[in-house]
Amino acid sequence: MGTLYLVRHGQASFGAADYDQLSELGQRQSVRLGRYWAERGLRFDAVVTGSLRRHEQTWAGIAEGAGLALQPLVMPGLNEYDADAVIRCIHPQPLQKPDTPELYRHHFRLLRDGLTQWMAGTVSPQGMPSYDDFARGIAGALDHVRGTHHQQNVLIVSSGGPIATAVGQVLGLSPEATIELNLRIRNSAVTEFQFTPKRHSLLTYNTLPHLDGSDYKDWITYA
Q: What InterPro entries does the database record attribute to this sequence (predicted)?
């Protein structure tokens, strides 16, 4: 039986012109996760990432902290949906920068509504695949791990949407439950699957063992 570790990227640049860039804290979260694993002797046989910059930067931080030199397999099917496009398809008017708690909540209320409609096939956000095609990209990555890495430790670095979708596929969850998982996953959080050539099984979800302790209480972020 193998173990698959799925990691959401470190804190990115929410509210900035370019979200796809780790913040300074996001870099530290990633390095800390790699160091935590190294301290416990965990090594990986293979690494798979999406093709977004924040995935690449998160893997670079993990590799730095853990002293790893693996070359990742890049699978664009592990890329996140475009949250701005999802919101625009139900709210075409420009939104204010989410720099207050109320505007932040408003942003995520719209995102939840847009995701629900995208997953149901009632809207088609510009520049995005259908939800069925998005889900097939995640399923393809899981199939690759099961078919290629028998009894190995594999790391996937991706985003909240793909990781929640993977959990939803493994557990047979409804779209509504998958959205709720997605909106609660934390930066640099670890989700673990055990796998055989036939199936994946959920072991843990959305854990932050590397940030357990008073020294890291201000390192826990969601965006």
A: His_Pase_superF_clade-1, His_PPase_superfam, Mito_Ser/Thr_phosphatase
